[in-house]
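Hi C.,

You asked whether I'd gotten around to modeling the 216-residue construct. I have! Everything is below, sequence then structure, no commentary in between.
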Amino acid sequence: MALVLVVAGLKGGVGKSTVALNVACALHRDGRRTLLVDADSQGTLRTWAAKAAEAELDGPPVVGLEGRSLRRDLERVSAGFDCVVVDSPPRMGAEARAAMIAADVVILPVVPGGADVWALRSTLDVLDEVRGMRPELRACIVCNRVDRTALAAMTREAVTDAGDVPVLDVALGARVAYGEATLAGQGVVDYAPRSPAADEVRELVRAVLALIKRKG
């Protein structure tokens, strides 16, 4: 069965789509058969995929899935893939819960700011509910759009104390390369393979896969 990674969050604007597409592109570039699922009604990843197709660029295939049947549909579309990366809706309704229930690992991005820390705590409450049904579910927090400000450091400290979900040592910086790559229909591992942004994404993927290895 495919490894299912779900990028989730209660609050929009934390970079879920950016994290999902870059993780998927890194897995694809590593030779893993990877499917990217756009479960966000905004359709950011479907727009990105159209840009990639227009430019005839290689990358993971993208499908759109929405609705409460997401868990069942994931089982159907994931056949033949090694990894599935899901960009879940920016709200904690039935669809996001369905995505979490289907996940092997839930990735929770957080950006610097008080509102984002508070929203993350609400997301962790939902994660706890899902773990009541699936106690083996793994999860991690990744700090996104990080800079050298005191706010970024305070945010990391706050989310570290928010619960029992680990905060990954690797963080994604506030780098222009992420936006440029998305506009070009690529992930940063293809758009700027030797950049700090590409290094961050590869480290993030290694850290997430290490969670699965520790599961056994």
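If it helps when you're writing up: Residues 3-215 form a domain with the Rossmann fold fold (CATH 3.40.50.300).

Thanks,
B.
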